[in-house]
Design goal:
239 residues, Rossmann fold, 2 domains, 4-stranded antiparallel beta sheet, 11 strands, 39% helix, 20% strand
Length: 239
């Protein structure tokens, strides 16, 4: 993965509070670095990658608030990456940032799942405002229920149903299920899942994640969470 301005481990400010985290997918490293610096000036943290493959890796390596996507990538057209992201039911907000100004490109971008379409050259202040706008809209959508096979999750109230029967889960157990559901069938490495659920909580024991997963399986069934050595965990039911 090519990191042009910041790295995945620095996505917190000095007060320990998380800034808005932006994944910039741009093959021109000069443009990407300038964009990252500009977003930092607007209180955001940017991680930059230059290829579609690196973008896919980054999406599953960290919890980004939004992706800013150029269409002219060297290994794959940006629209293809966008379509694949949406086909996996990933809810990550996406702003297309491109020089392709023809109306058919704008229509194609929006129809492929882009939340906004911004033309180059652009004003950083306007782009920052658009980023905040799409993130606000996505957080409104995040309260919608998630269904995977017989499992139903309500992110707003932290409730879980299995075959329409309400199941009592702890907050940590619910968080694990939500992160696995958001991975849309992809494997999450234990270290990745642990960081997303516990953050920087140094008080937790080394086997805390395994204990919570054991409890989830006890309540929902062994098939609720799949395990693969070398890959990690994923939800046993598909969205």
């Amino acid at each position: 993965m090519s990191i042009c301005a910041f790295d995945l481990n620095s996505m917190q400010n000095s007060n320990g509070k998380s800034d808005m985290q932006v994944l910039v997918v741009e093959d021109d490293e000069l443009i990407a670095s300038g964009l990252a610096a500009g977003l930092q000036a607007h209180g955001m943290v940017a991680v930059c990658v230059t290829t579609a493959v690196s973008a896919e890796q980054a999406i599953y390596a960290a919890d980004f608030d939004v992706m800013v996507l150029d269409l002219g990538l060297p290994d794959q057209d940006g629209l293809t990456l966008l379509k694949e992201t949406r086909s996996r039911k990933l809810s990550l907000p996406v702003i297309v940032l491109t020089a392709r100004d023809a109306i058919e490109y704008r229509i194609a971008g929006l129809q492929s799942g882009a939340d906004d379409y911004v033309l180059k050259p652009f004003d950083l202040g306007e782009l920052a405002a658009r980023i905040h706008a799409v993130v606000r809209r996505s957080k409104g959508r995040a309260t919608q229920e998630i269904t995977a096979g017989p499992l139903r999750l309500d992110p707003q109230y932290g409730q879980v149903w299995l075959n329409e029967k309400l199941i009592a889960l702890s907050r940590r157990e619910f968080d694990i299920l939500i992160h696995l559901a958001n991975a849309a069938g992809h494997w999450l490495a234990p270290s990745t899942l642990r960081d997303r659920v516990f953050g920087e909580d140094i008080q937790i024991s080394s086997n805390a994640l395994n204990v919570h997963i054991h409890n989830i399986r006890r309540k929902l069934g062994a098939e609720a969470i799949e395990t693969s050595r070398g890959l990690g965990f994923r939800l046993g039911w598909r969205l």
